[in-house]
Amino acid sequence: MSATIAAPVDWVEAVGNLHLPMKADRRLQELMDRNNDDLLDPLERDELEALVELSEQLSLVRGEALQILGKRP
Question: What is the pLDDT along the chain (73 residues), one digit of tens a residue?
């Protein structure tokens, strides 16, 4: 089911500006680098998967908000 609701433009813009916090982004990059070198332990691999999933979800939500605003990512 698809529904349309009204939302304040500033709220949609705020959603379009969502991103990982700097500390989480740095950790994601660190884990990706260690993964490329095949140095991750199982807990780090789980952490990497969770951060990648979160980053992907944020990107999708941001993309939808920017599309609503008629902006490019």
Answer: 577 778 899 999 999 999 999 999 999 999 999 999 999 999 999 999 999 999 999 999 999 999 989 987 6
Looking at the structure of the chain, the number of domains it has is 1
Q: Domain range for residue 24?
A: 9-69
Cα–Cα distance, 73 to 65 (Å, whole number): 10
